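Internal ticket #5521
Category: modeling
Description: The requester needs a full-assembly model to guide mutagenesis choices. All entity lines are attached below as received. Residue total reported by intake: 460.
Assigned to: D.W.
Attached entities:
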Amino acid sequence: MAEQSTVTFIITRQDGPDSAPYEETFEIPYRTNMNVISGLMEIRSNPVNAKGEKTTPVMWDMNCLEEVCGACSMVINGTARQSCAALVDQLEQPIRLEPMSTFPVVRDLIIDRERMFDALKQIKAWIPIDGTHDLGPGPRMPEKKRQWAYELSKCMTCGVCLEACPNVNDKSNFIGPAALSQARLFNAHPTGEMNASDRLSGLMEDGGIDGCGNSQNCVQVCPKGIPLTTSIAAMNRATNIQAFKNFFGSDNAY
Amino acid sequence: MAEQREFFYRRLHSFLGIVPIGIFLVQHLVVNHFAVYGEESFNQAAGFMAGLPFVLLLEIVVIYLPILFHAVLGVYIVFTAKNNVSRYGFFRNWMFKIQRYTGIITLIFLVWHVFETRVQIGLGNAELDYSLMEGILTNPFMFWFYLIGVVSAVFHFANGLWSFLVTWGITQSPKSQQISTYACIVVFLVVSYLGVRTLLTFAYGI
């Protein structure tokens, strides 16, 4: 690999949300320890394709560059992952970059993940602590539980699980794995628990948890190793119990 | 409160697949397996089932309506999936895809099978006995059609049993889901054996 002088990228580009996608090939000089983003930066500084024609710089999204923000997800050689953590030395050449197909493309590799944030609203993935007066400190969380919940809190809304899920597509309204696990995280929090049924209602709404078909791709591809399928099964149990409570239970099935 | 109808329908779909449809499937194959013990045993067992009180009502409530609901929603579910095993070739993703394919195969098989047996018996064109099935299955094409149909139905049931356990939140941990995978493979093999063994008896008299 050290002898290699150039790196070839084949990038699926799209000029705008409504224009047709096309492929463009770039050959850029190889440097040691390159990742996909440094390759894209190289293209940006000299936007000339492999045919030697001057073109527009390839657009992509990025932020933290250390696999915690989730912004730079794209499909690299067929697999959805973060481009910041994709090292050129470990990738087969030519490196094919595509935008994640589950999401609407804004331009080139930039996609709109708004549906994931809408999903978090649907399941109320926050802890309501605002009141008209000081509510005082909430209940304490046991340390062991905190350590467990920390794993779930690593979700960065990157969209890789939605991209891999066969049931998240334009024919279905399935909310996707990420939000299901977030409902479990916030329902496990000692203060968040006080609104657990609101989140479960969000999961039971149309396009909620019921769209899961147990293909279990999500847990295989999650870059953070979140136990998504365990979360889904746990939320399946919780929503079923809530549904029975709502129907058969007394009037305080909160 | 927003609509929760989909949630209810999908849970009902999962439930009906096992109770009563899955139970009926196993029962049906066990009763048919009497054919292996001889023509007389089969006619007696099938005659007992057909002679149950309120048999038409039982059939409608326990078999026809649940299967109709399961099939209609099931076909919709098949068409909302976008299979991606070429990119994500994990075991469970394959099972997801095969579950959908076997569902469609089972539906096609079932429509033909019900038309050829229950409907013809109901219309008085056929008698429910050993020779009816023998007549159908000695045709090699029909034998293979039945073989694929029965194995598809049993696979759909066994894999559906696995996802039933997940959908109802019974198996949550990866380990329990792994062990239930093995258990469902055993269910698949055992129930498939019952079905295929019976088909062989009808077709080749062995």
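Resolution: model delivered.
Comment from assignee: Helices of chain A lie at 36-45, 114-122, 143-153, 160-164, 177-188, 196-204, 217-221, 228-248.
Ticket closed.
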